[in-house]
Amino acid sequence: MLGARKEFTIKNINIKNTPQISGIDALYYFAQSGGGYSRFYENIIEQIEDKRAEFTALNYAYADNDIIITINNIDIKYSGMGRDGFLWFNHEFFRVGFKDSEKAQNIHNIRVQLNAIGIYTLGIESLVEYINTQFLKGSLLSTNYFPITRIDVNMFIQHNFNYLKKEMILSKKKTHSANISERSSGYELETYYVGKKPFLLRIYNKLKELESSSEIKREIMHNYFGVNGLDIQKPIFNVEFEFHREFLKEYGIDTLEDALSRSQTLFELGCDLVKVLDISTLTEAQLNSSNRKRADILPVWEYISTSYDNKEFMQITTPMEKIEKISYRYSLEDARKPIKRQILRLLLHDNSPTLFYFYELLQNTKEEFELRDSFKKLQSEHKSEDTLKFKTLKEDLKAYSDEGLQNFEERLSKEMSGVMPNDNQYDELMHTYSELYNELIRRNLVNIPF
């Protein structure tokens, strides 16, 4: 019928009502620091050094991500210094970088990167508000100026893009023709890349990607798909445009607010700059000539380019009072993967650990930690500028019960058996053991062999 809406089809499949969800998959921005930033940065360094000293006192071989610091009562995990000169930290819902204000003064001191767990758990606007008003509050910021550095606008769609070919891609960007690639597993397409920074397109198998994600992220995304009408038993692909600051400024997009308010326009712009063609009606000769441009737009691509609407996505918010105390803590879920790797290594070497093995290992480790922690606290209690720790220890040991003193000796002996003479703690442990042994002798709790 004349004037009736065209129904897009591919391979006889009606796609007019194909389930899809529009949104923002990643968001990076700078935060302009204030007058109190230098002291704040010094405090970060002090917290890192204090944690390192604490691990050293416990004789613990630590990694950067074992260091957890606190900013405005919110815990974040250190992940080391990046090549960009920023000290990077991970929160459950975002990543943040801080740099020395005296270095690279042409770049803002604070960088923020939102991650998928945060975006799909709290809602993007709630997460941004949480970071900017709770985490970065106080004298840390000078203004509410947040320059955007990257935004990924995307659409999850119930469609299988396994049929994609390089010849189907038509880009208005001349450099894109040399920057089209794909990554496949067997005969299954995983990711299709078009372009490079500052503007690129990715089309990838989202369910395949989630197979290697954390259990928490996988559960969140599966629930998100289900609530929004996508079936995780069927293919779900992500069509995602990645825009960086250099590209965004060409279109007058400078701040976080600019990018969020124009996210739909950006997605439609991406679909216009890169098109996917329906080459099924072209001959081989036409396919390899300029006539390829005359091919129709692939119906599913036309559907995607005209269906982006993230109004509902932007309305997903979480009240501040429910998220103001979120903190990072190393969890049992975090430990699962490294423990599984060690078990796999044992199995590869024909060693099959038993439940008793793990129980004994757990008990020994807890006892060792409690001993080292007690020793560290003992050192801290008796440390002063004028008096060495082992000189005041004698008085403290007199307050122990006989049983407590003997238990301390047993645990300390076990601890010393694993400490070499070149270890930083060796001398301190020897001094402690000497005073402890003298107190045992004074109470006639040991047999002197002469």
Characterize the structure shown.
The chain has 450 residues and is an alpha+beta fold. It has three domains: 10-25 and 145-322, no CATH class; 33-143, no CATH class; 354-442, no CATH class. It is built from 16 helices and 15 strands. α13 crosses α15, α14 (389-397) packs parallel to α16 and α15 runs antiparallel to α16 (426-442). The chain is elongated, with a radius of gyration of 30 Å.
In short:
The chain has about 450 residues and is α+β, with helices and mostly antiparallel strands. The protein is built from 16 helices and 15 strands. The protein folds into three domains: about 190 residues, no CATH class; about 110 residues, no CATH class; about 90 residues, no CATH class.
Keywords, separated by commas or semicolons:
16 helices; 450 residues; 11-stranded antiparallel sheet; 3 domains; alpha+beta; single chain; two-stranded antiparallel sheet; elongated
